[in-house]
Here is the input.
Amino acid sequence: MMQRALPILAILMSLLACQTAATNQSENLKSNSDGAVTLTGSIRGLNWADTRDNFQDGVIYPSGLSSSDTYSSASIIADRIIGQMYSLTGANTVRLPINEPTVSSYWNTYTGAIDTALTKGKVILCYWAVRKGRPADLAAFKKMWATVVEKYGTNGNAYFEPINEPYGFSPVALNDFYYDWISEFPSVPRGRIILDGSGYAQRPSTVGADPRLDGCLLGYHVYAFFSSIASETGWQRQMQSNVGIYYPRTVCTEFGAVMNTGLLGKTRYDRLLDYGMPSSDKFVIYIRAITSQFRAWGMGSVYWPGVRDNDIYRLCTKTGSGSGINLSINNASGLSRIQFGWGKDNDNLKN
Here is the structure.
């Protein structure tokens, strides 16, 4: 009887161990009020971008930073901008751009901003290719990332997005490119690597399906100008198609809409859009749809942009300079929808 009981006891102990491991793993996941589970739901972010846009041949200067800054002054500016972005919105993540010139010639200054940001929450460091959706010089690209990974690879708040909107690659070539990056930097935990979907980061599913890239997070971009969809359900169906079963690994690192008055192309916005109520306006339809889907999925998201001077999409307006920088929210109803997508009212706004 004892001889037969021993194998049964061993099986029971094994099952208990598996259950304990599953419980520990589940504690690292984020659940929303609808029961969806995701690896990215704790990411509540805003982009801090260059006034000229982040596609630059030279150094990228997020709004407020300049060539005359030092490590110390960049740290002060980041403290003012990121600190207020977080206090005004409930965000805990900032997405910062890098490129080869920024790392090779501005690094000693820029790290002042990055180091300060890392003391406040999560930081997504994202490479922006200046043209053609791919690095112009692969050796320079890898050298840049080697510098970044050496400094921040062991920081648990640092996330690495190897390339923004990789439209210059075919889906197959893109997955090979990502596998090469992961192989080049094997010390970076896959759970802190964000791989943009193919095209303009519109299709995370093409990356998620490659087993070589298992464990990495997936980057997703969705904008109103990507489609002529005219209903909230239509937008949600498209998101479900593009992201598919990979939503638990996906974070939307860019989405945005008109948050100010002024001109966008040939269209003038004389009044702030109201994102709090259903509307026939294409931006309202889009924002309400995607934030509802983020919430249903429990997906993390990073609004474009939190701060970027003169951008009609910007959530915050910056005034002053240096230690005198102040931010204000441009559109309260827009902020409410962003927060809704983050899971406000169901504990997702807790760090």
Summary: The mean pLDDT is 90.
